Amino acid sequence: MNIIIVSDTMAKPRVLTLGQVVLFLALLIAGIALLTSLLILPQADGKHHGVKALIPAALHLVSPNTQEHIDALAMQLGELQARMMRLDATSERLSGMVGISPSTPEEAQPEPGRGGPEVRAYGLDVPQLQEKISELLFEMERKQDQLSAIEAFMMQQSVQKNAFPNGHPVNGAYNSSSYGWRLDPFSGRMAFHEGLDFTSEVGTPIYAAAGGLVTTAEQTPDYGKIVKIDHGAGFETRYAHASELLVKVGDRVEKGQLIARVGTTGRSTGAHLHFEVRLNGAPLDPRKYLLN
Questions:
Q1: d(Cα 235, Cα 288) in Å, to the nearest integer?
Q2: For residue 112, what is the DSSP state?
Q3: Percent of the chain beyond pLDDT 70?
Q4: Is 126 helix (H, G, I), strand (E, B) or coil?
């Protein structure tokens, strides 16, 4: 750009050539000087209030949507922090219920210390907010893993509790023959009795001592009508000499569920329930479980 300077003291006009950068700087300085002069002038008549009102709008035009973006990110950060606090509270409560530490999972790292004054959105820029959001998302994922581990532990405890054969199989009956060596009532010779006999009336309800899967529901020469239930972890219970079977093979039963009725079928001298507990096929003394 060329500027022509004319003066009475000059013999001839002078021509100045300004580059674009110099021209821009000159205009910028002039604009700043103008704004400054307008702001420091007396404002008794209020005529310059409109000029002041234009400054935020001008700044908004220089950086469009930046503040809106920061506000949105700050709101998202606050919501994530609130969710994280609820996850922490839930984790602590569940851990207390099952008696384990929230950081029991091996993959979980020690909980980092957190705190300090609240940071306003205006004190953080977009990259800082995005970094904090990423950190919170990582912490939430780690906390979710902890909660999943606690849930799995609770489910396992529930399954084991339901599958442990400590429920009494028949009510109102007395033990007429114990586990171990005894005189066989048919042969009169010593024989090993692999369960407990509970004398009761025909038709008395028989209940599952634990939850599990019915693997046998049939009649045999020795056991008569018998139900076998697989409880998992190698445990099995047997209910023999029944008069009626109320479950079938493949049924899943719960602890305390009615499965049969007392009878005197098979090799039996009278109405009673022959009850066995086995672990990996080997007979165990049922009294050790029923007492618990």
A1: 14
A2: P
A3: 63
A4: helix
